Amino acid sequence: MNIKFPLIIVGSQWGDEGKGKVVDLLSDKATHVVRYNGGNNAGHSVVLNGEKFKLSLLPSGVIHKRKLFLSQGVVIDPKILLDEIHFFENRKIRVNLMIDPRVNIVMPYHKALDAATEVWKGKKATGSLHLGIGYCYEDKNNRFGVRFEDLINPESLKERLELIFPLKKLQIEKVYGQKFDSSIEKIYKEYANYGKKLKKYLGDVSSVISGEIKKGKVLFEGAHGTFLDGIFGTYPYTTAVYTVAGGVFPYVGLAPQKIYSMGIVKAYTTRVGNGPFPTELFDQVGAKIREVGGEFGTVSKRPRRCGWLDLCLVKTAIRLSGFDYLTITKLDVLSVADKIKVCVAYKIGGRSVKEVPALMNDFARCTPVYKEFRGWRRDISKVKLFRDLPKEAQIYIKFVEKELKVPVKIISVSPERTQNILL
Ligand code: GDP
Ligand code: MG
Fold first, then answer.
1. For residue 91, how many other CB atoms are within 10 A of its CB?
2. Cross-strand pairs, 46
3. Residues contacting 24, CB < 8 A, separation 6+
4. Residue 207: phi, psi to the nearest 5?
């Protein structure tokens, strides 16, 4: 497996493609691992010797004890981050972390506003987990945020809270009509304490990574997936951030330059929450994939919607992020199906297209055109070499690679770190 650094890992579908496992695996070769977007609404699971580690903020390079970075594009819920740090330190894994001062902090009123807005949207709710991430980004963009720099400086924390809190309280109580039982003093006390504990991690990630990118092997871990991108994803059922590869430049604070990118493609498609999903399965096969694939949210525990692999989605992701390599994950899960379908085009009215349409109204009404493959119905979770895969699985992978015109470098066949076919 010949993969070049600096490298960025991006989900090519709606997230949960198995990026955590791939970042953990590739961290072995990396020196620095940078998480650059999203908050603790993006969950990863990494399995090591049968033990499952759940991460929502720490980069997945933590188990390899790499130098870890949270760049300005990330928003941090400090309690969650401290819990994750303790989890690893209790297992004698030292967390070598740097946090950029420009990172925005998720505050209690963000969560309260998140919950209140979902109630107001009713049936049109985006399916937010009430973690306050979108509201934190809203304040960030509107220059009304609390940054890591403020969190670790009691005076600025107080000053920011005095400016921001009264308006938030009015909004939640008077506009949304919800109770918000909090005060400046209460938040200040709790958050100043988090700041005290996290202060030692402060560092200018933009500057450090700008230098290391030339010397070391930097791995960038993208959260979510291409179609959860706040602009190019399936709006409004998306996150609030860029998830396409190009986001890495401002989200870390880097000049434009060549960064290799790897798209993570789950061998079928899943999505959490609402929104259009052309290849969704409503039958027994979909239920079986959900069960065998463990398709329940890492953070949310919600059942993920499951469907066939959609090459129109992945092709669009390739155009948006320019993948140099692909990883196909969870091929083992498809062992449950007698027949496997792959979407190769969409029909929209009388037209046939091969990419996700720019108009979401078109996307909502498109129907998939499938190519059908024979299943293999065999356990492949121990296979290490491509030639040892059942012929039907080889045909499936080769077809996908040929259609997408990007080389497949890793085929993942189990949650375990070691169970991969490297190409
Ligand atoms: P991420 O958000 O892209 O990092 O993905 P998640 O970690 O949320 O979800 C992927 C899930 O699939 C996790 O529970 C992984 O342990 C698991 N997983 C990853 N790769 C494989 C694989 O090849 N086969 C199987 N069966 N499970 C996998
Ligand atoms: Mg996930």
1. 10
2. 53
3. 46, 48, 60, 61, 63, 64, 417
4. -70, -45
Residue-wise pLDDT for 318-356, tens only, equals 999 999 999 999 999 999 999 999 999 999 999 999 999
Tell me which of 49, 63, 330 to substitute to probe ligand 1's pocket, judged by most ligand atoms within 8 Å of the beta carbon.
Answer: 330
Tell me the three state secondary structure of residue 237.
coil
**Overall average pLDDT of the 383-398 stretch:** 98
Confidence class for position 126, pLDDT limits 50, 70, 90: low
- Residue 48, beta-bridge partner list: 51
CA–CA dist 420, 352 (Å, integer): 36
**Catalytic site positions:** 16, 44
Q: How far apart are CA 86 and CA 197, in angstroms?
A: 11
Q: Rounded to whole angstroms, how far apart are CA atoms 87 and 95?
A: 10
- Output the ligand 1 site: residues, CB below 6 A: 11, 15-21, 43-45, 47, 293-294, 298, 329-330, 332-333, 412-415
Residue type, 361: N
Question: Which protein residues have a CB closer than 5 Å to ligand 2 (ion)?
Answer: 16, 43, 298
Domains annotated on the chain, with CATH? 7-92+205-422 (3.90.170.10), 104-200 (1.10.300.10)
